[in-house]
Amino acid sequence: MRYALDASNESLCEELRMLTAGDAQIQAACQMAGAVWDGNVTRARGPRAALVLLEIGADRDTLIACIVSDPRLLGQVDHAALIAQFGAVVADRVAQMQGLLQLGEQYRSEQSADWVENLRRLLLSAISDVRVMMIQLVHRLERLRGLAFEPDSDKRRQIAAETLDVYAPIAHRLGLGQIKWELEDLAFRHLEPATYKRIASLLDERRDEREAYFFAMETT
After folding, report:
1. Model's pTM, two decimal places?
2. Where are the domains of the chain?
3. In terms of DSSP H, where are the helices of 56-129?
């Protein structure tokens, strides 16, 4: 089930509660994310991103790390506190996630000729656990889902281009086909809006033709 971008934290936590048999640690992480929810749908939300991970079978520690990696929380909870509350595995994945974000910022500022390929390689080599990259990818997906509400058109295009060049290929490399497809689809929508609308219109027309054909077959 896809929740609205501005869905209440309570509804997201309730969905996670039902899907994880009421796991107390996941609920505690949800409450942490809910406490800093600011209504800004252009940024990823930990609980929504965790629901995407749940669909692809992520383990408990990865779900918790995804929730606590909400960008509004990063830097506000120290490593020792995370270890005390959620364990060393979660704390380490959150720390690696924060490191990936810092690497991305560094490479965006440099923008060398081959920065895209370098960033892809560096992101993959900088982690010791591929599940950290899965967290990064679903957070990026959540950001793309809210990108239409970003008022800065240049920033929209920059985020979309980076997604297409860096993150969609990583999703493909990790075998995350559905995430790769949605990243590409959303990025293309912002990079080539006229072409995207034209293609979507053609697909709708063909769908209508198929539905009419099957209806005719059923009634003859």
Report:
1. 0.88
2. 9-219
3. 60-68, 79-86, 88-110, 115-125
Q: What CA–CA distances, in Å, run from 91 to 4, 81, 182?
A: 29, 9, 29
CA-based torsion, 32, 106, 108, 163: positive or negative: negative
Q: What one-letter code names the amino acid at 17? A: R
pLDDT over 90 percentage in the chain: 67
Packed helices 130-145 and 177-191: angle between N→C axes, nearest 10 degrees: 40
Cα R_g (the chain), whole angstroms = 19
Ramachandran bin of 75, using left for φ above 0, alpha for ψ from -120 to 50, beta for the remaining angles: left
Q: What is the pLDDT of residues 116-173, one digit of tens each?
A: 777 787 787 777 889 999 999 999 999 999 999 999 999 999 999 999 989 999 999 9
CATH number of this structure's domain 9-219, picked from the four choices 3.40.50.1820, 1.10.3210.10, 3.30.390.50, 3.40.630.30 = 1.10.3210.10
At 19, the pLDDT band (50, 70, 90 cuts) reads very high
